[in-house]
């Protein structure tokens, strides 16, 4: 049975616990339906009301939505505000200065606490420091930092002075970093000397040096270095400066830069169906509204909660549910530097117990790998820890299979915590389809219903509605405040990718297939319909990996597809034709490992193909098109049922069946 069939045949329903419903921000299905009806009645008024209630505006806005240049929608455009003011000063002014903002746990278990007052002072110092380096409103700053208080401070400091940040995940290679620095036109790069993960020390600053040695980076005037390990790294005089030195003499107050609601808060690069990553541009007002609102709606955050999102600030989850959402609502959150399996696979459970975490948000891949680990070693199973502080669980990033859902619900949540399966994307800014803890009866494997005001629907290839029970293309029919504004430097690609003419040019195309069940209209996501893979919740373009492979001088041709994987959801499978004769035996293993290392250098270790298969050729149609469907079957190890009569050399199918 396929994963999707198993979800559609899923009849277990978990109703929200009564005690939770009673106190929830949205309490009961009627309250949800009331909000949905309000949005239906007066869409612009609905979002305007929430934007006024949730955010502190420096200048109030007079108009909610401007659709005059669709699909370049604008929200709350004539209002001004500052994100860091909203996340920090506002909380301090409300008397929460002494509240813990961040409980930081380092890889080695060292814990550091920061109050809202401290966080504000640190953000102001760095904001002043960046201003002293000449950074001003609208400049782009690249942040290539490990999980740290400093990383969050860096993002908030950029927001404070109106600089647009672009965080690059610390696992990306110098080439990937270079590509992003150049596309963003960054003037400053913030980094660390080194990063520590699972007891291992990995470089950061030297990778920045490599990236900046490449062409097109002349705009970068300074590199600011957070001393994480104190390791020995090279400094370029005049360009590089220690973060500690930069902030040492700076004031702990800093006047925020009041920016328009549409001012770009950040650009975050993500993979699309071509080789070049897309710089997803987000706004200030609409984005922050979503970060705050979904903390309240989807996670039901309360002043007594301890929130923990295990994502990295290099991904959008770490933006919305670490750097901005929790602070926007004055919450206490745990921030973690390390990995779930170090010093052992009980690390998450140990941290939940130690910090009395109440809301825990992680990825299906992590859950699946921890299920395996606790099967193998019962000592690290969740039942050995006191997890009674938990009240809400969340997942994100990829479909969660019902078995993993039920384990999470039972073994981690003790059967009492709703599992909030949040569907969203880098482009949506925050949750769009998700259960609400005090509202939604849960069905394992389904992300259930759209948030109030989100016009999610399933359509066919011409944009026509599809009946419940039938699969189709997931779209959102109306703009919403936290949606992507454009692709940085490429408005045409924005229109083509997300508002394609084939669907009429007005529907937001998510890029996923989905189905709604006949009984409740619940959504289940079936995975990407474009050439994008989801490996361990990380989005990877097949074209990016193919380009990396063919850039190797020994490679003649390469095609990359995904195949199902028990732990990572999908795994990368590369079919490779070498310029030399097809290798076999140990030669093939050695070359496959060389190619993996090559891809790690070109893109980053997350893009390394799990399987590499060598052939003398790739299966192609008469017109020379690679038969990807056939490759997907080969990757899965399925019997070939497709018509292969047009293949020039059917023997290659046998060759390609062997994985290295
Ligand atoms: C893609 C977006 C959302 C932040 C992290 C990933 C997949 C995301 C779910 C979910 C099924 C999901 C989709 C989506 N996805 N959440 N709850 N159930 N699939 O953001 O890197 O932009 O990836 O992740 O395929 O399109 P992203």
Automatic annotation (TrEMBL):
**All copies of domain AMP-dependent synthetase/ligase, residue ranges:** 96-480
| N6-acetyllysine carried by residues | 625
Q: Which cofactor does it need?
A: Mg(2+)
Pfam families listed in its UniProt record: ACAS_N (PF16177), AMP-binding (PF00501), AMP-binding_C (PF13193)
Q: Which GO terms describe its molecular function?
A: acetate-CoA ligase activity; AMP binding; ATP binding; metal ion binding
Q: Which InterPro entries match?
A: Ac_CoA_lig, ACAS_N, AMP-bd_C, AMP-bd_C_sf, AMP-binding_CS, AMP-dep_synth/lig_dom, ANL_N_sf
Query: What domain of life?
Result: Bacteria
Protein residues bound to CoA = 197-200, 317
Briefly state the modifications made to the protein after translation.
Acetylated. Deacetylation by the SIR2-homolog deacetylase activates the enzyme.
Looking at the record, the residues that make up the Acetyl-coenzyme A synthetase N-terminal domain are 32-87
- What's an example GO BP annotation here? acetyl-CoA biosynthetic process from acetate
Has UniProt tagged this entry with the keyword ATP-binding? yes
Residues annotated as binding Mg(2+): 550, 555
Q: What is its EC number?
A: 6.2.1.1
Domain (AMP-binding enzyme C-terminal): give its ranges.
544-625
User: Quick check: keyword Magnesium in the entry?
Assistant: yes
What family does the database annotate? Belongs to the ATP-dependent AMP-binding enzyme family.
Q: What is the purpose of this protein?
A: Catalyzes the conversion of acetate into acetyl-CoA (AcCoA), an essential intermediate at the junction of anabolic and catabolic pathways. AcsA undergoes a two-step reaction. In the first half reaction, AcsA combines acetate with ATP to form acetyl-adenylate (AcAMP) intermediate. In the second half reaction, it can then transfer the acetyl group from AcAMP to the sulfhydryl group of CoA, forming the product AcCoA.
Q: Which HAMAP family match?
A: Ac_CoA_synth
The molecule here is called Acetyl-coenzyme A synthetase
The scientific name of the source species is: Pararobbsia silviterrae
Encoding gene (name)? acs
């Amino acid at each position: 049975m396929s994963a999707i069939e198993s979800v559609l045949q899923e009849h277990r329903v978990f109703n929200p616990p009564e005690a939770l419903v009673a106190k929830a921000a949205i309490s009961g299905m009627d309250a949800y339906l009331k909000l949905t009806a309000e949005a239906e009645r007066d869409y612009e008024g609905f979002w305007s009301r929430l934007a006024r209630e949730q955010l502190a505006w420096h200048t109030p806005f007079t108009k909610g939505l401007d659709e005059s240049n669709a699909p370049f929608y604008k929200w709350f455009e004539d209002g001004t505000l500052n994100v860091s003011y909203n996340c920090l000063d506002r909380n301090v002014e409300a008397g929460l200065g002494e509240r813990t903002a961040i409980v930081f746990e380092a890889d080695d278990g060292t814990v550091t606490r920061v109050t809202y007052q401290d966080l504000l002072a640190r953000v102001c110092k760095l904001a002043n420091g960046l201003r002293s380096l000449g950074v001003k409103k609208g400049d782009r700053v690249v942040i290539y930092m490990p999980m740290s208080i400093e990383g969050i401070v860096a993002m908030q400091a950029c927001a404070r002075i109106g600089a647009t940040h672009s965080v690059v995940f610390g696992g990306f290679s110098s080439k990937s970093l270079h590509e992003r620095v150049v596309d963003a036109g960054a003037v400053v790069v913030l980094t660390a000397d080194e990063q520590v993960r699972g007891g291992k020390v990995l470089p950061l600053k030297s990778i920045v040096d490599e990236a900046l040695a490449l062409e097109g980076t002349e705009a970068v005037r300074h590199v600011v270095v957070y001393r994480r390990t104190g390791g020995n790294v090279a400094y370029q005089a005049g360009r590089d400066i220690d973060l500690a030195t930069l902030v040492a003499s700076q004031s702990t107050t800093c006047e925020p830069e009041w920016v328009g609601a549409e001012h770009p808060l950040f650009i975050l690069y993500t993979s699309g169906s071509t080789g070049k990553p897309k710089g997803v541009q987000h706004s200030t007002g609409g984005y922050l509204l979503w970060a705050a609102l979904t903390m309240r709606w989807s996670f039901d955050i309360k002043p007594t909660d301890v929130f923990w999102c295990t994502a990295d600030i290099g991904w959008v989850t770490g933006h919305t549910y670490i750097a901005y959402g929790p602070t926007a609502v004055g919450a206490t959150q745990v921030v973690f530097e390390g990995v779930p399996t170090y010093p052992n696979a009980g690390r998450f459970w140990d941290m939940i117990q130690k910090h009395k975490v109440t809301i825990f948000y992680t990825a299906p891949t992590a859950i699946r790998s921890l299920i395996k680990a606790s099967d193998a070693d019962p000592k690290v199973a969740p039942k050995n820890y006191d997890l009674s502080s938990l009240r809400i669980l969340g997942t994100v990033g990829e479909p969660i299979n019902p078995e993993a859902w039920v384990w999470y619900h039972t073994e981690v949540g003790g059967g009492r915590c709703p599992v909030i399966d949040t569907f969203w994307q880098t482009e949506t800014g925050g949750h769009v389809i998700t259960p609400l803890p005090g509202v939604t009866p849960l069905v394992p494997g389904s992300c259930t219903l759209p948030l109030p005001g989100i016009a999610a629907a399933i359509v066919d290839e011409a944009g026509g509605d599809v009946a419940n029970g039938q699969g189709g293309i997931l779209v959102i029919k109306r703009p919403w405040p936290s949606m992507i504004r454009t692709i940085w430097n490429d408005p045409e690609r924005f229109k083509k990718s997300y508002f394609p003419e084939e669907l009429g040019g007005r529907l937001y195309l998510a890029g996923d297939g989905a189905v709604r069940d006949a009984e409740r209209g619940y959504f289940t996501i079936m995975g990407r319909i474009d050439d994008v893979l989801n490996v361990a919740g990380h989005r990877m373009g097949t074209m990016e990996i193919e380009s990396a492979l063919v850039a190797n001088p020994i490679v003649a041709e390469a095609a990359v597809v995904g195949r199902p994987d028990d732990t990572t959801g999908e795994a990368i499978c590369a079919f490779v034709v070498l310029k030399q004769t097809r290798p076999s035996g140990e030669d093939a293993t050695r070359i496959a490992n060389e190619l993996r290392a090559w891809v790690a250098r070109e893109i980053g270790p997350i893009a390394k193909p799990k399987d590499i298969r060598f052939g003398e050729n790739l299966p192609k149609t008469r017109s020379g098109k690679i038969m990807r469907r056939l490759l997907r079957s080969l990757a899965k190890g399925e019997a070939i049922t497709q018509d292969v009569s047009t293949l020039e050399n059917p023997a290659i199918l046998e060759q390609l069946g062997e994985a290295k």
